[in-house]
Design brief:
alpha+beta, 3-stranded antiparallel sheet, 15% strand
Length: 391
């Protein structure tokens, strides 16, 4: 079963009720449930976006891409599942698993009994629409193909018809350790998913051809596959825990020496009485992507990437300082020139007023001295993601 367009069809009232229900079940009640629910409501109701030179405010569902989206969606579906189990008196499938909006199950019953259960689920919450498939042989679920063989569920890897296996090409300008890790990580999926040794071997040979087409050297591929072949399925499925301190650097081929210097001199930290408890193991060095041509050439249509001095010359220094603290600033003075692509001054003022009223305890109004004495800046400190996303 699959829930169609889950994120955009969740009713705000039902979602906030589910959120309150689960927050009230916490053993530690801080922060209070009503505070977190109010912040979630701000995220849901104050999301603004533009389309075809028109500006809109989302009044239903959760915005795609917001950090709270997956957890919020899981909570409301989980709440609905609990209510269905409590109210439905007919046959219930013996196996029921879900990942966000994708559901898989197995049942030993007659087809009418299963169809009756599915029909009850599909009509339980009018806002949610389901698609489903019933099969007595095999079904795909995410990247897994499930099949019934000798009254047992067998699993194999599943590729969608649109999957082109367009892995990162080996000749591209990326860290070499990343290109070396991609084949190994993909091969490691096979013992985790494939429950049959013969199927594992067939899928491994198939995956070899995918990487050969992307320019990966055969010696590396065969070496990675031999390493994966020695890992049992239980080992592959066991979670790994990394307690090392993470050091994130911006990648450049000339700054890789930083990692070598750190590891070569790590004994200084590990032997010092004051730091060896903080760094029992060497830090885990990872890299973030640097800006590329797309970052320089592609810009937001709202003009949010224009220089601050052009948008708000009177308060640009204050905005730069506050942005490092993850604050949201709204200029309310009479001299501000608001670009028409963002909003009209009246519209912007109405947005700010509504936002400040909603989180009044966390907002302060300051008047910078000196060169900025004529500018009145309202600083709204709020942890709600995307409180005014169009800024």
């Amino acid at each position: 079963m699959d829930i169609k367009s889950l994120y955009t069809v969740i009713p705000n009232n039902g979602g906030l009720e589910a959120l309150t229900y689960y927050l009230d079940q916490r053993t530690i009640k801080e922060p209070p449930a009503h505070t977190l629910t109010r912040l979630a409501e701000l995220v849901l109701t104050l999301n603004a976006f533009s389309f075809n030179d028109q500006h809109y405010r989302q009044i239903g569902g959760v915005a795609m891409g917001t950090k709270m989206g997956p957890n919020y969606a899981c909570m409301i579906v989980g709440c609905i599942e609990e209510r269905i189990r409590a109210q439905y008196t007919g046959f219930v499938p013996q196996l029921h698993k879900r990942y966000i909006d994708d559901v898989v199950g197995a049942a030993q019953c007659t087809r009418p009994e299963l169809e009756q259960f599915i029909d009850y689920v599909c009509n339980f919450q009018p806002a949610l629409q389901f698609t489903f498939t019933i099969s007595e042989l095999e079904l795909p679920f995410l990247d897994i193909k499930l099949a019934i063989t000798n009254n047992r569920i067998q699993t194999s890897i599943y590729y969608k018809e649109t999957d082109t296996h367009n892995y990162l090409h080996f000749t591209l300008f990326h860290p070499r350790h990343c290109k070396q890790a991609i084949p190994y990580s993909q091969f490691l999926r096979l013992p985790r998913i494939c429950s049959n040794d013969v199927d594992f071997s067939e899928k491994a040979e198939e995956m070899l051809t995918f990487f050969k087409r992307r320019g990966y050297p055969e010696p590396q591929l065969h070496s990675d596959l031999q390493m994966v072949a020695t890992i049992s399925r239980d080992e592959a499925l066991s979670p790994t825990h990394v307690n090392r301190v993470l050091l994130v650097l911006t990648y450049h081929p000339f700054n890789t020496v930083t990692r070598k210097i750190l590891l070569d001199n790590f004994n200084i930290l590990s032997t010092d009485p004051e730091t060896r408890g903080i760094f029992p193991e060497s830090p885990l060095v990872s890299y973030r992507r640097d800006k590329n041509l797309r970052d320089f050439l592609v810009h937001s249509s709202s003009g949010s990437q224009r220089p601050l001095d052009t948008l708000f010359p009177a308060i640009a220094p204050a905005v730069r300082h506050a942005s490092t603290l993850r604050f949201r600033l709204f200029y309310m003075g009479p001299r501000a020139h608001i670009p028409s692509k963002i909003a009209s001054p009246v519209s912007l003022r109405m947005w700010c007023t509504a936002s400040l009223a909603a989180v009044a305890p966390a907002c302060t109004s300051v008047r910078p001295e000196g060169a900025y004495r004529n500018a009145s800046v309202s600083i709204c400190i709020a942890s709600a993601t995307g409180l005014l996303g169009f800024l």
